[in-house]
Amino acid sequence: MPVPMRAAAPSRLGLGVGMDMPWAGGTVVGFDSQVGGPSRKVEGFLRRYGAEFSYLMFSFQPRGPAAMDASLYVPAYDRLVALVPAGTPLVLHQTTLNLAASHAYDRQAVYRFTNALHARYGFQWVVEDIGIWSQHGIPMPYPLPPFLTEEALARTIANVREARAQLAAPLHIEFPGFSDGFMVIVGELDAYDYFRRLADAADVAVTLDVGHLLSYRWLRGHRGEALFGDLDRLPLERCRELHLSGCAIARNKFLDLHHGVLLDEQLALCELLLERCPSLVGVTYEDPAYSQEGVLVPKAMPNVHRLRGLVEQWMR
Amino acid sequence: MDALSSLDASFSRLIFDRAARERLRRQDWSGLDEATRQALSNTNLDELDRLGSAVRRGIETGDLGGMGLRPGFPKTLAALAARTGEEGAVLDGFLASRHLREVDGIGRRAGVSMAEAFYDWASEQLQGDAAASCALQHELAGMLLKTRVHAPVLGFQVRTPLIRVTERGSLCVLDAARPLRDAEDKPEQPFVHACHGGRYISGRLSHAVAAVLLQATRSPPAWVTSMLAGVSPGWLERMRGPLIEKGLL
Question: Do A137 and B40 touch (CB under 8 A)?
């Protein structure tokens, strides 16, 4: 029997939107480095759709070689938050907790930074995929899955416990991605078992990314209905949030593309999880795809509407 | 070293060191303990190669960490490539070196920048080559001080004493003709790289102007103190005036 989580689940929020926010030029998704605020594209999207989502999640992504110093980021985050209706609940997606790092990694600067942002924005929670985001100080091009070994699991449990204790906002750990073509798998533990044991031992709430779950099942050779199998091996009772970002299946590979277009398989698994996660608070549509004017791309719309319908039904 | 540290060290080598990946491809498991061999037994070597290449490319362009070595060190990379005859081998050599372990590219100020780690490695490679070492010093100074313009609070430590902090920014006085031996070395042809008031400025200057600029730093070299010891306050004010107008003091 798992240890109960420390904090009671808040009431259901509904469908939120998650935004990847890298720093680049003015026409991209993210922050415009030149103006120090959201790009025109992001602005267009949030002005058009911001009120249709019940919460906003945004990712911390480093501004080049700048220090992790809240004062350097707050002006841009203020402008981002101003694009959604006042009082919209906020969630921070961290990318530097690096919870699956097996080497010594000092997180004090990350805690200070995150807590300073939380003091200003009052995040509902802070989430990060259990992964290796940097190795010995060098950022990885994408988060790598944790080492699936007993020793690494023990280290990650300690890392998560520390982060949970040090962060002022509730911490959610997210099941990692195993997208084909980019994944270096080390160790032999089953990832579902690893994740459940981690969540129970660290007594922490979890986020299940539907595409990440499917990518792992796909990697293990499951197809069809079997993609939805073994859900009982996951810490469903600890799940507070689902993530859905655009995925594709091409040339017998499962690709976690974050391109805004949801697969039917993602919606099917989402529907199952909505029924089976008793503590669920929100469902996040991550990294929507939209035009320069901020209009959702036509290819994404049908399954986004279906997702909204599923969440509305769950909210009743 | 415990099993996890050993696995982690091997994993790092495989990401950053192309030669280590190639050894594994040849089924050469020497140097890896049993637990590490077991953990890596099902690792897809093609994906490991793709990861290693993506990391190398990101460090080269600056997509990872924001300080690209190719745009920042063009002369140094060319000089090193001319020695090895293979451009790709230059970065591979750096990535496999101990200097990479000094980097903090996350913004925690827990290590040096990629640029300074590369400088430290390249300085060793270029020993005895004055022209290339001189270019290396200028490229490092330019890169660090330009970065400071865009990131007023740097996410890394600057350890080289060649970069000096002032009240309004940072500056580095080098020699246009030869590499400085250390931060105390007096340049024959002073050349300044400065970041002041949100601007990057560089150019040649006289010894007198260099001395006045360096005197305003927290750690002026002894030759500056000596040179300015006998000057009158009026002379000093006349020298400082134009520098203040240009925002350099």
Answer: no
Is the CB of residue B92 less than 8 Å from the CB of residue B20?
A: no
Q: What chain A residue is nearest to B144 in terms of C-alpha separation?
A: A65
Check CB contact under 8 Å for A151 and B3. Answer: yes
Say what the ipTM of the complex is. 0.93
Domain of residue A162: give its range.
14-315
**Is A64 part of the contact surface with chain B (CB cutoff 8 Å)?**
yes
The pairing of strands B190-196 and B199-204 is antiparallel
For chains A and B, what is the number of CB pairs under 8 angstroms? 146
CA A249 distance to own-chain centroid: 21
Phi, psi for A161 (deg, rounded to 5): -60, -45
* Cβ atoms of residues B155 and B111 within 8 Å: no
**CATH classification of the domain holding A128:** 3.20.20.150
- Stated as kind and residue range, the H or E segment containing B33 is none
Nearest-neighbour CA in chain A from B112: distance (Å)? 10
Listed by start position, the domains of chain B span 161-249
Residues of B in contact with A64 (CB under 8 A): 62, 66-67, 147, 150-151
Q: Is there a contact between B47 and A183 if contact means CB atoms under 8 Å apart?
A: yes
Q: Which chain B residues are Cβ-neighbours of A65 within 8 angstroms?
A: 65-67, 105, 107, 113, 147, 151, 154-156
**pTM of the predicted model as reported, rounded to 2 decimal places:** 0.94
Confidence check: pLDDT of B152 > 80: yes
Q: What is the mean pLDDT of each run of 10 residues along chain A (316 residues)?
A: 54 96 82 92 96 98 94 97 97 98 97 98 98 96 96 98 98 94 88 98 98 96 97 98 95 90 97 98 97 94 97 96
Per the structure, the count of domains in chain A is 1
- Alpha carbon of B22: minimum distance to chain A alpha carbons (Å): 16
Closest residue in chain B to residue A140, using alpha carbons only: B55
Q: Do A103 and B12 touch (CB under 8 A)?
A: yes
**In-domain check, residue A55:** yes
Question: In chain B, what is the straight-line distance between the N-terminal and C-terminal CA atoms, in Å?
Answer: 52
Helix axes B3-16, A150-166, angle to 10 degrees: 90
Residue A4: inside a domain, yes or no? no
Element holding A31 (H helix, E strand): strand A31-32
Q: Is A138 touching B (CB cutoff 8 A)? A: yes
Between helix B74-84 and helix B114-125 the angle, nearest 10°, is 40
Specify the pLDDT at position A1.
Answer: 44
Cα B62 from Cα B51, distance rounded (Å): 16
Nearest to B243 by CA among B197, B183, B179, B176: B197
Query: Tokens 């995929």 appear where?
Result: A129
